[in-house]
Amino acid sequence: MTLASPPRVAIGIPVFNGQNYIADAIESVLAQTFEDFELVISDNASTDATESVCRAYAARDFRIRYHRSAYNRGAACNYDLVYRLCSPTTYFKWLAHDDRIAPTFLAKAVAALDADSEAALCSSLVQVIDDKGEQIRIYDSDLIAARVSERPSERFAVCILKSHRNSELFALIRRSAFERIEPMAAYYNSDKVIIAELALLGRFLQIDEPLIANREHQKRATTAVVRAAWAAYHDSKGGHWNRFGHLMVYRDYVRMVHRHLQDWPERRNAYASLLKWWGAGNNLITFCADAVAFVSPKAFVFGRRLKHQLLRPAAPKCRAGTDCSGD
């Protein structure tokens, strides 16, 4: 890589107060067997030791660039910023500050995308790990239609109707496809919108090995009780309508179909999937919950806690003299 020739891959790490895990994420990037990359870290005005950790790495490897914002922009804005700070590479990847990638991820993902110019992204099986880095399970998003179908409407349908962990957000993404989608929006579940729009633009490739590690821990911002605070976290300007996360998701699904699908049969099929979306999973219920959270965030949090109390599984009944501890 030279100043005149950007690397083939850019990796962006958006972070806020990530001192516990960001070194692990950076080390996983530096361990890649594919070395033609740059790593850009966008620090959202962290108040812990994140800055000192990142500056130390940037000082030792020219491929690492560190940017610190003067104020907290909100998570969505920081995801967009780290992308804009990257060089115009062929491929781009977001890496959560508390996740990591296996040493061969970039090499295998780049090779897969190079071999299939119609694919929008390449992901892998996901190794779900705990706060200590120990494996909990292996996850497969199982978005089969998004991987095999040549019809954009079918790829779109599986992404919006099937429940999944949004792991494709952290795939290696073809930049030419990424440039055609809208930036991450400041509402809850906006990552689902990005995945659905990428599905309209190309097939998803998957490496059938767990090369991406996704960490589950108490501070990770994916639990249900954070929904009421999501808009404020993602939008420092506090846009009120962003609290209607599910309504905003639906609105942007409709917009992307209109924007990308010019063929009427394909557009009609996508609109049919959008009608089904209201009955899929808990979408209608979640929309109602968003409405409650909009009026009273405290009432929303109370309702979520009450639901979990009522749905908590009963303790197993044991026969006399047996141990039900499960240890």
Describe this structure in words.
Among the domains are: 7-100, Spore Coat Polysaccharide Biosynthesis Protein SpsA, Chain A (Alpha-Beta Complex), CATH 3.90.550.10; 226-310, no CATH class. Helix 6 packs parallel to helix 11 and helix 10 packs antiparallel against helix 11 (264-277). A hairpin with a 5-residue loop joins strand 6 and strand 7. With 327 residues, the chain is of the alpha/beta class. The protein is built from 13 helices and nine strands.
Short description:
With 327 residues, the chain is of the alpha/beta class. The chain is built from 13 helices and 9 strands. It has helices at residues 22-30, 50-60, 75-85, 105-115, 144-148, 152-161, 175-178, 190-201, 227-234, 245-260, 264-277, 283-295, 297-311; strands at 9-15, 37-43, 64-68, 91-94, 100-101, 119-129, 135-139, 172-174, 203-215.
Mean pLDDT: 86
In total, how many beta strands?
9
* Protein structure class: alpha/beta
At the fold tier of CATH, the topology name of the domain at 7-100 is: Spore Coat Polysaccharide Biosynthesis Protein SpsA, Chain A
Sequence stretches where pLDDT stays below 50 over 5 or more residues: 222-234, 315-327
What descriptors fit this protein?
alpha/beta; Spore Coat Polysaccharide Biosynthesis Protein SpsA, Chain A; nine-stranded mixed sheet; 13 helices; 9 strands
